[in-house]
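Inputs:
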Amino acid sequence: MQIVLPIIIVSVIGILLGVGLSFACVLMHVPSNKKIRDVRATLPGANCGACGYSGCDGYAEAVANGEAEPNKCTPGGEATAKALSELLGVSVSTVPKTAVVTCDGSCDKVQNEHLYSGISTCKAASMMFGGPSSCKFGCIGLGDCVKVCPYNCITVENGVAVIDRCKCVGCGMCASVCPKGIISLHNADYHHIVKCSNTQKGAVAKKACSTACIGCTKCEKVCEFGAVKVTNNLAVIDDEKCTGCGKCAEACPSKCIKV
Amino acid sequence: MSNLLTIFLAGILTENMILSKFLGICPFLGVSKKVNTAFSMSLAVIVVMLISTLVTYPIYAYILVPAGREYLQTIVFILIIAALVQFIEMALKRYMPPLYNALGIYLPLITTNCAVLGITLLHFTKELNYLEAIFNALGAGVGFMVAMVLFAGVRQRIESADIPKVLQGLPITLISAAIVALSFLGFAGIVG
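Outputs:
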């Protein structure tokens, strides 16, 4: 019978608190904003944080209060932005994004400088002399981006990460984990990309990887639209200006400009 | 009066919840990246410590002791503190939205904070009376704030320092926490 009194004490206190709380809940009810709930319902709910807010709830509140633009949701893309702008009665322009790996240094194009047998992540490998590959700018291929991608659209093929353009929603998670910083967001309808991130001088870059951009500026000269710029021995194509004529890709001696 | 002051100061310096009793380490490491978040978190802790002491002390003295069931204190106090924090959260949301926005996300974290439970239990091992217990709770809360804000300041400095790669992140945080705790050891003996 020793146990009866403690049980009574704890359960009575528990019940009293429960009843008190439920009364308090009714008494101090705060009507939650319908607008916020509507906005939240429109969002995809992936909680990826690509908008810069703490999950979809935070973004919904900011949008409903007019503090954020309705086009910040990358996974939702154009459809969500349109739905949101209809809901809020504001106009908005969107360009869907997609992530691109700017490296094409697959196993047959680069050599291994050393054999890495440590922890199997790109981050760990890149701390060891900048990674095992001869090119210190390129993809390590241990797949940190593959693990982080919530949409399973990245694979490592022949030592280089490849992003499936059709599946990618442009949330940018992969770009934030890549220790080499070689994943960037481009307009989803981009035409040509320089698949190299090596900023070393031509001869050095070429030695590291047979398909490296050597900064010869042939692509810059051949482009009629001024879309290609070579800075730091590396060509970069401006998505907005590129029309997809493909002359740069033809002119490139190391074939690092790809569709 | 001097007794109350002694208890208050002891709570801040010699018997600091975090740095000498090692309670509430989770927010100490988790919410100490910026000085202002550390400050709001500690404000919430002070409020909750004070109110839970106000409520749990009479329950211990007038229900558990007469019933001879002092050993129930832990489970009963957890119940009460959890409900209380919920209640405070609701009340703040209803009547003080700005304060709710400042403390909001930290209040639920405090529900299960060991420092809050610890202080309500420690009153009885020290055999304090009601008024002394209130000052003890206040002192512990302010002590919590001192430790949090000091450490947040240290961490902000660390962020811009050039730290060897092996020590970056958590290792250097723990080392500096140890050094801050050591510095509080210097207060031993001045009060209490």
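Remarks. The two ends of chain B are 14 Å apart (CA to CA). Residues 2-185 of chain B form one domain.
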